[in-house]
Amino acid sequence: MRIFPILTAILVAAVIYLFVFQRDVLLSFRTDESEMPQMAAQPAPAAAPDQNSAPMVSVAVLPSTAQNVDSAVTVRGETRATRQVDLRAETNGRVISQPLRKGATVRADQPMCEIDPGTRGVSLAEAEARLAESRARVPEAEARVIEAKARLDEALINDRAAEKLSQGGFASEARVASATAATQTARAGVAAAQSGLQSTLAGIQSAEAAVALAEKEISRLVIHASFDGILESDTAELGSLLQPGGLCATVLQLDPIKLVGFVPEMAVQHVKLGAAAEARLVDGRRILGEVSFISRSADKVTRTFQIEVTVPN
Predict the structure, then answer these.
(1) pLDDT tens-digit profile of 67-77?
(2) Is 173 helix (H, G, I), strand (E, B) or coil?
(3) Where do the domains of the chain lie?
């Protein structure tokens, strides 16, 4: 009953022996059989193959051309506005302009919010009047300085004359002393006149500063857009009270836009400024841009580097 398994095992062992130890004989036998019809068709017998030559093996050949392949770094990120600014008030007052609604397109230097001027115009007029008054005092102060210098010159002449007469015995010591005192008084008068002129010039500078401050305060009454963009929020409502630092509006610049992502520390060396970048949005669209920023320091927690890609919107 067990004769068939034994015969099967002997047959399998023989086949394995032929494939392992007599493989060259089997391959040569197969080659001779495949060439027999071709040799019969030839009119003259072909030369017998060399028994010592290696068997022929079929191979597949695929032509290839060398080309440069760019290595890509895949990053997950988000879209952001290129510029965003919160327009805030620099002075206090009630809003007297009609509001603009969010989503509206604005242009650079377009008025966003206007504040009630109140008494600021009166303050400017008062500062300008003080400035004009201070400037009118300059000629008078300069004339006083000239007059004081003339008196000093006269006192010096009298002092020198009294000194010479005293040396010749023609003038008393009292006269010499009187001339010297007059000279000192004249010098004090020159110093006082020059001080008055400096005070007048200082008054002019103070008045000019007051005028500049009043003009600056008036210029803060109208809040302008910093660049072309789109309103992210409504501007301040008519009649609302704005304090310094109060929000007037938020403006975004969306052309171009920024794609912000974070690259692992091991791959940041493969990202270069100006390199081409392709992004796939959540809706499936693909957009092209270039790398415009690479962070020089890694995040302390994730150890990733922030990169930005600028894309035309």
Answers:
(1) 766 667 888 88
(2) helix
(3) 77-116+223-311, 120-219
